[in-house]
């Protein structure tokens, strides 16, 4: 099994899932495209998707690059924390946006560790 | 020729193109930065770009990973459907956002096939 | 040192930095999640982050693919211009959105050169 690829694709599927939930929120709360405001519950679902997009663009390169220098199993395990953190973020943001911090940190910290590991790897590589 | 790289770069160029069209819509409909609302036609162009951004972040890793396990020509051919689907999406969204579904599915289904192929590849890899 | 990886990770860190600045602007200007409008200064910081996200999604694949066909040091040097251009973009957008053009071009042109180099590389590859 290629753990790095598995985690990367699961993170992409997670973004897809959040996108589907935005589509459903659009229908449920009557927010017609191209509008993205007008209903607080829709906006919460939409912001979860957009924030996940931002995080994923940082997470994927960090995951791949860190995986080229360090133990792939360890790198993938750190990536798993990101995946769980995103689910926590989603649940807490939908319940109450002011409580999104824990899930946010559970995503940002793993990504940051991967970024730092990748940077060290790239610097000492010869 | 590296078909995977070609399709990947064409998909990136397509996002660039949609971004240029947003810039032109900004000028044409008098929507001054940082605003992203206020004119329905501008909002349509903007949502096409944003949705393409979301799709591309899923498409590119799926394309690259699937291409490492399966026939590169076949994977690139599926990627071509994504490219065409995005153009269909763009044209139909600008004409009438409620008709965006066909183009949307023509993007999402190829990406989903690549995601599934990549997942299977990563799982059976040893 | 792997220059391509270094530039890629620095570009990701830059997106992170802009994200942190959006979080601070949220607090400073009293824009509560999930809202992303209502204060011009917040909207500027937010648009810098979103535009950087769009650019990064184009820049990273272009950087990686160009780096597989051409001198990695040269490709990374072009990437450095992107990094500097994004900082110029950020500073000028926050000061006055109508002055964002120089920084914008300093990002778009390097990315475009990398895209074109990657396309040529992928086409002549055998």
Summarize the structure.
The structure is a homotrimer of 126-residue chains. With 126 residues, chain A is an all-alpha fold.
Describe the structure.
3 copies of one chain form a homotrimer. The first copy, chain A, is mostly helical and 126 residues long. The first copy, chain A, is 83% helix and 0% strand. Chain A contains 4 helices and no strands. The first copy, chain A, has helices at residues 3-28, 40-69, 72-95, 101-124. In chain A, helix 3 runs antiparallel to helix 4 (101-124). Chain A is elongated. The two termini of chain A are 28 Å apart. Chains A and B meet through helix 1 and helix 2 of A and helix 2 and helix 4 of B.
Descriptors:
homotrimer, 126 residues, mainly alpha, 4 helices
Q: Which protein chains make the most extensive interface, counting residues with beta carbons within 8 Å of the other chain's beta carbons? A: A-B, 22 and 30 residues
Mean pLDDT of chain A: 94
Largest sheet of chain A: none
Radius of gyration of chain A equals 16 Å
Structural class determined from secondary elements of chain A: mainly alpha
Oligomer: homotrimer
| Beta-strand residue percentage of chain A | under 5%
Low-confidence stretches of chain A: none
- What is the 3D form of chain A? elongated
